[in-house]
Design brief:
This protein has one domain. The chain contains four helices and four strands, in the order H-E-E-H-H-E-E-H. It has helices spanning 2-53, 87-111, 116-138, 161-188, and strands at residues 60-62, 67-74, 143-151, 154-155.
Length: 189
């Protein structure tokens, strides 16, 4: 009788722990999904606007050329890297590997990540990656770029919102992890 009671108590505690974990993961799944969707919608919406209002037209400059809106189609990755690769290599480097990384990242954010802040940051990076990845799949490796930043001759390449999500997401991720690690190290000492 005592063994049966202990088994029931043990099973009840396991069930409670699983339910608590499911509730906690629901928040991560919801927030991660929202961040992914927001990133994708912003990226796709701005690319559609660029197609409608910038294609075939001269660049539009703001703030003394600090920001220039200009239409470009990129068949490679960052700064057209890989645009001349053969189709097999291009498919592996620009479709298969990024898709695997994005899928693993989504899995990690939704089911494994401990910190909500890091989940949001990673979902921002993944959302940007998915924006360009989906375009490459749908449009035969072609991605619309339309933003250029710089001062004088010091300029970025032409990029899009997905690129900004990835770039700034990575910068914030590195800073977040640095300060998180620094805080954890100080707590241990």
């Amino acid at each position: 009788m005592l063994i049966s009671y202990r088994n029931n108590l043990f099973q009840s505690k396991i069930k409670d722990a699983v339910l608590i974990n499911i509730q906690k993961r629901k928040r991560f799944i919801l927030i991660s999904s929202l961040v992914l969707i927001i990133n994708y919608v912003l990226d796709k919406g701005t690319k559609l606007l660029a197609i409608a209002f910038l294609r075939g037209k001269p660049p539009i400059s703001f703030l003394n050329d600090l920001i220039v809106l200009t239409y470009a189609e990129n068949t490679g990755a960052f700064l057209s890297f890989g645009s001349s690769f053969n189709i097999v290599l291009k498919s592996i480097i620009m479709l298969i590997i990024p898709m695997a990384v994005c899928l693993f990242g989504i899995y990690w954010c939704m089911l494994k990540e401990k910190y909500m802040s890091r989940c949001i940051i990673l979902s921002t990076i993944i959302g940007g990656g998915l924006g360009n990845l989906i375009d490459r799949i749908i449009h035969n490796f072609t991605v619309v770029d339309f933003l250029n930043f710089g001062i004088g001759k010091l300029r970025t390449g032409v990029l899009n919102i997905a690129d900004l999500s990835v770039t700034f997401g990575v910068i914030i991720f590195v800073l977040f992890d640095y300060f998180l690690h620094k805080k954890d190290t100080q707590t241990l000492n």
